[in-house]
Amino acid sequence: MTAPKPPDVRQSDPGTWLLDRIDAREHSLTCQIEQTQAEIDTLTAHLAELSEQVEHLRISRKTLLSLAEEDPAPAEPVAPPPTVPDHPAYQQILAAFDEADGSLRARDLALAMDLPLSQNNIQNVRAKLKRLASRGILVETEPGLFTQPRP
User: Fold this and answer.
1) Which of 37, 68, 125, 137 gives 132 a disulfide partner, CB atoms 3.0 to 4.6 angstroms apart?
2) Could you please report the per-residue DSSP string of 92-133?
3) What is the DSSP string of the chain?
4) Among 24-38, 52-66, 75-89, 104-118, the least confident range
5) Rounded Cα gap, residues 69 and 67, in angstroms
6) Could you tell me which of 109, 151, 99 has the C-alpha nearest to residue 129?
7) Using an 8 Å Cβ cutoff, are 130 and 146 in contact?
């Protein structure tokens, strides 16, 4: 003898079985809608962030282009070249620097100018070198050592 089969629900009440299937399907679709809506909300927020970044870049580009089209800022006035004192000794000093290969000391310059090597002459040359350095015509690279500035 075989065990009796359970009654087939579909056969006993087909209307209830169909309604249960419709309810299950509706619930499944509602869950999918909620998940999809959550994904859409996330993507919409991300899209808004990207759009804002693009807009900032456009504004930056527009600003830079408008600045580039404007007249450039007026150049700072160029300082007049330093003036060399009128005394001929300064002209001799500069001529000696033009002939020299590098830096000179007051003693070397006194020799180049054919001055007697007395303490007084060396001090006078040193004072003139300091004056030229203070005006930016010469540069004192180290104490007592003078050279012409590089362009």
Assistant:
1) 137
2) HHHHHHHHSSS-B-HHHHHHHTT----HHHHHHHHHHHHHHH
3) -PPPPPPPHHHH-HHHHHHHHHHHHHHHHHHHHHHHHHHHHHHHHHHHHHHHHHHHHHHHHHHHHHHHHSPPPPPPPPPPPPPPPSSHHHHHHHHHHHHSSS-B-HHHHHHHTT----HHHHHHHHHHHHHHHHTTSSEEEETTEEEPPP-
4) 75-89
5) 5
6) 109
7) no
CB 117 within 8 A of CB 111: yes
What the block records as the tokens of 1 is 């003898």
Q: Are 100 and 138 in contact (CB under 8 A)?
A: no
pLDDT tens, position by position, 48-99: 999 999 999 999 998 888 888 876 666 677 777 778 888 888 888 888 888 8
Res. 137: pLDDT tops 80: yes
- Is the separation of the CB atoms in 115 and 123 below 8 Å? no
Written as six digits, the tokens of 111 are: 């020799």
d(CA 139, CA 132): 8
Question: At residue 142, what is the residue type?
Answer: E
The answer, as to whether pTM is greater than 0.70, is no
